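Below is a concrete protein record.
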Amino acid sequence: MESALKPFRVLAYVVGVMLLVLCVGMVLRYGFGEEAMSKIIAPIHGGLYMLYLVAVMNLGMKARWTWPYMLGVMLGGTVPFLSFYVERRVTQRVQTALTAAEA
């Protein structure tokens, strides 16, 4: 489970940052007519989000999460700033489970 946590954490941060950059791109696109940034960032964020979903599935299967919980974690990459909060909560949950398993 510990080996699946690190990729999840990295991707949660990267997807969160890219989502914030995408939001800036959308403001530029629809507010100021500048489409270039969003056209570049949108597919990058989409690809990284797919990797994030795989990381969540990997961690969730190893940690034996319920499907509703796993879906909630997956949605963390769709709302600005939420992926940072979700990453913190998931990390605490996994570390608690690892500590309990060692005892």
Summary: Helices lie at 2-32, 36-63, 67-74, 82-102.
